[in-house]
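Throughout our pipeline, every protein is held as a single compact record rather than as scattered files. The remainder of this section carries one protein's record, kept here as part of the documentation.

===
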Amino acid sequence: MTQDNLQLAETRFRKLVPLQLSSRAALCWAFGLLEGSAASAVLFLAAFTYHIVVMQVAVDQAPIELYAVYSIMVGVLYGAFSAIASAKFLDKSQHPHSILADSALGWTGAFGIALLVAFLGGMAGDLSRVSLTSAYVAGLPLLLGLRNVCYSVVEVRIREGRLQYHRVSVIGDRFDVVRFLLNGNLWKNGYQLVNTLYFEDAMNEAGTLREGALVDFARASLDRDAEYMIFVGDLDDIDGLESIVEDLKRFALNIVYAPATSNTTFKFLDVVPIGPNNALRFLRKPMSDGAVLLKRSFDIVVASLGLVVIAPLFAVVALLIRIESPGPVFFRQERRGFNGDTFFIWKFRSMRVTESGASMRQVRMGDPRITPIGRFLRSTSIDELPQLINVLVGTMSLVGPRPHAISHDAELSRQLAKYAHRQRIKPGITGWAQVNGHRGETSTFEQVEGRTTHDLYYIENWSIFLDCWILALTVFSAKTRRNAV
């Protein structure tokens, strides 16, 4: 990049970045004030409606003051929880599917704490259980909807570059800094550049950094409320970098490093201490040990209950299969699962053949090998129910990427390199791809990519609430049964 082109790029970036700024703390307070006020209003209106309209109590005899105090208390508590949750949302440290869960937990926590205070203060007996229960039940969908709308509006403004709440300053060689700013699209991710320092402009005649240049730059950045100072460059002089950072330890700034590269896809996740050394982590296990235990416990409980409840259905289906065509009721097929290990999946037989997973022909729409009963079983996913046995023995989970036969798995991996990334978590009976309509054939690249993209999204955003949501969609959503063969 020539000097003229570099200046043009700088000018372009300056024009792209809008001047609108907002404080992250102010946004958190705004979220807390808005949602806390809504919580107070919901509770007070529900209590007022119950006493005045339903019970027909005179206004001057209704405990309006008591409910006003209780509503304000709940609103303040819920507003505080909202502000904390919004900070995680703005920092993008929160899974999308935990946003609504946080709202529900915040509402429950605020209600419970306020009720405990009322009990300790001797006021609980004067509060109507019916009105409080009605307010709690009515408040859940209203506050969940409000939070979803608010976050959606803010996300749109961020993506459009109309809202910046993180202030950053950047330091490094001019070429590296400009490339970092242009490649990163910081202005569309909530970041506002407030200061830059190019090493070329901070050198003395000896070719070293001018004494005090970094300190002056840090002070100027703090005067402009910068939260982050970003070093852009190569990690080929750790000792030199340490000496630079040493001068900045007097300031309350986040000092971070960004590699001087145009590659924006390869990510450094965090720094892991390995003995006395620090190591950059590029990949982490998708689930912590606690999350694995929680998911496994959920699988065992639900699968056990499911097998007990649907045992009569098993008997009926088994009888119909035996009457309709010769062959076994169940069939086992080898599939590839967690960490690429193979296992045998259990299914009700829905075809006239029982092919092994190592060599087989994928089922197509209208496949003549499918029996009439089998077609019904496949369209309703009843043929998958024996996989609850796989869940109990631990080769599968209730929710996860659908496992494919070994021959299909090898072919799909050749079509799409990231397809194999689905094996970082246990396969499931149902999954995020299936409830979004990506089931059935994988004969085109678009079908493979759509299924893989949804599976990877699930892996990266797993939560127990997402598992429950997927199970609910599996049962009640018509989209789940779309494309079934």
